[in-house]
């Protein structure tokens, strides 16, 4: 049968609207995905008008499985809301599982709205007793989801199983179109009625999306041979359109979740690389991880410069404060030492006996059932993340993928910061001894003189020289001479007040100390104590002999001997020269 010109025009209009919806969907996938379901619905509306025939008015009871809260006309405002929201900064909450659950719940409500609108289309076109949508259940059947019926005896929890009942007998080989013209059995054999409703004819059509059968539409009637071939064609079209609309609603949500997670992670990575302090990176990790990945305890550790130990820098959860700032050896057997040595992620349930996480004597939480450990770094493990849970098999593939990206990004940021710190350190510190270099010493001395002048505080400058250092190099070689330089530099640094006094390698075998808020007598006592401690040091020569080294020191007091940095250095250097002349291994004041 040929369609009338009016019907053809409506069909063409519907197809054009569908194409427009697809184009809009592809152009704005993440924020306008509901355009396609809306266009599909409009297309179906056009088809309905094209196929429309007069229907018999009948009073019926509307009994939806779940009442819809809003209609299809509210979707454009929802799209506008999403577009506006996309302009705002995406928050870290999108990384959490709660956000994901909320989004899927919202899209289920949208799909219910779509199904209700298609039910209304079918109702307007076909005179039916019941219109119902069925979708696969977890146990292999097809569960009723949305319906509209003239009967009050619909089973809202109905599940149709292949091979069971009138409809199930036709589902053995998958979903198919049905046209039962003369049903003589009790309506309860259809499995979606609780009492006989006198159903005598029924038609069904698969709900198809992306070429896959996703569910079925069932329409029944109390009259025999009620449905025409044109009704079947219409229902088949509705099945395809409804399937596409629901399918793209789900695809939209999936893509939206991926997008916002990607955007949130990008913002986090940007934050990592904008910061120039490792502490800021660790703070951000400690903020994000427990929020994004459900766990009961989090600990983050960093490897020391020596590489043989690490320290727990952040801790959250039970006994967290007892783990915080604890250092542990990477040479001893523990979960985290294994993480550092293998530089690879591992996860599992804890065994029945307690497994050491970091160190012997650590706080034991026997209620923890599973863990996820991930290295921080790229080519080398710079740190470690340990997540623990009271639930078995708590950490999913999604958790591992998210933590992988966080750990990799944080590792890159930490390595970058460490490289920058090393570069800055090389610019201001001596490469051999680690003390301030000559250039940095000059700057620090000027700063301390300004501070001393402003607050009228005493200040002492000390210059020391290793006695007979040339002989040490000539006798035992330059590598051993470097060992002596490093040993004396370490002793100098350990013998002064941390973060108050200043030590520097002045040049060659000469060292300098800036003693802040130190009067002359106190400076003499301090330097003489340092001299004695250095003289007690024992160095093992390449030939296996033990030897010691001594130093001579000269002191100059700011304000008394000079008011300028150059003059102060000159006076301290002359005092050092006098110490050398007077027998070495001694302290002299200008």
What can you see in these coordinates?
- With 590 residues, the chain is an alpha+beta fold.
- It contains 15 helices and 19 strands.
- The chain has helices at residues 5-27, 35-51, 75-86, 97-125, 165-168, 229-274, 278-292, 320-323, 335-342, 397-428, 438-455, 469-476, 478-495, 520-536, 565-581, and strands spanning 130-136, 142-149, 159-160, 178-180, 201-209, 212-221, 297-303, 309-316, 327-329, 346-349, 370-377, 381-389, 459-466, 502-507, 510-516, 539-540, 546-547, 551-557, 587-589.
- The strands form four sheets. A six-stranded antiparallel beta sheet has the order 3-2-1-6-5-4.
- A hairpin with a 5-residue loop joins strand 1 (130-136) and strand 2.
- Helix 1 (5-27) packs antiparallel against helix 2 and helix 6 (229-274) packs parallel to helix 10.
- The longest helix has 46 residues, at 229-274.
- The protein is rod-shaped.
- The termini are far apart.
Structural classification: alpha+beta
Largest sheet: 6 strands, antiparallel
Strand order of the largest sheet: 3-2-1-6-5-4
Helicity level: 40-55%
| Number of helices, counting only DSSP H or I runs of 4 residues or more | 15
- Unreliable stretches: 1-8, 22-36, 44-73
Task: State the total count of DSSP E strands.
Answer: 19
What Rg is obtained from the alpha carbons, in whole angstroms? 40 Å
- Terminal CA distance reads 119 Å
Mean pLDDT: 84
Shape descriptor: rod-shaped
Strand content: 15-25%
